[in-house]
Amino acid sequence: MSFEKINVNRDIKHWLHVIEQGYRYTAGPIGTKFLEGIKAGKLLAGKCPVCGRLLIPPKAFCQYDFAEIKELVEIAPVGIVRSYTVVYEDSYGNKLPKPVVIGFIEFPGVAGGLVHYIVNVEPGNVRVGLKVKPVFKPGNERRGSITDIVGFEPA
Ligand SMILES: [Zn+2]
């Protein structure tokens, strides 16, 4: 096994929108259940069988005691904005028609959180501590993806 070590910043490569290689990734058994939950309009957290912690997004193993996570439980769909940024330009430096807000959202009693759009609020009215709830696409447009959630709006 070998690891690529980056010593010079200009060696870092990035791709806009599409990664060149034709890799396909799976979400894994737990990630798939999480996405199926989103498709059904629910937020599901992993529940650790050892420490009982709830984790979102759920991972295959508990990050505290490495126990295997097999159970997902539905959580209340109300989160708290813990951090956010307002984006004014796209990846090419073009001014967006209107600013986009991206936030990190935590859920009370749940470890982790989700990064997602904050919608239906003026950027100037977003603040840390704002209570938000998910806005789902109509059921027939959901594909089992995190983007089945349009964003989170003030609750
Ligand atoms: Zn645990």
Q: Nutshell version of this structure?
A:
It comes from Vulcanisaeta distributa (strain DSM 14429 / JCM 11212 / NBRC 100878 / IC-017). It contains 1 helix and 9 strands, in the order αβββββββββ. It is mainly beta.
According to CATH, the fold-level topology is OB fold (Dihydrolipoamide Acetyltransferase, E2P)
- Return Rg in Å: 18 Å
The number of helical segments is: 1
Number of domains: 1
* Shape descriptor: globular
SSE series: HEEEEEEEEE
Q: Biggest sheet: strands, sense, closure? A: 5 strands, antiparallel
- Share of helix, binned: under 10%
Ligand types: zinc ion
Distance from N terminus to C terminus (CA atoms, Å) equals 48 Å
CATH architecture: Beta Barrel
Mean pLDDT: 91
Identify the strand order in the major beta sheet.
7-5-4-8-9
Quaternary assembly: single chain
Number of strands: 9
CATH homologous superfamily caption: Nucleic acid-binding proteins
For this structure, what is the CATH class? Answer: Mainly Beta
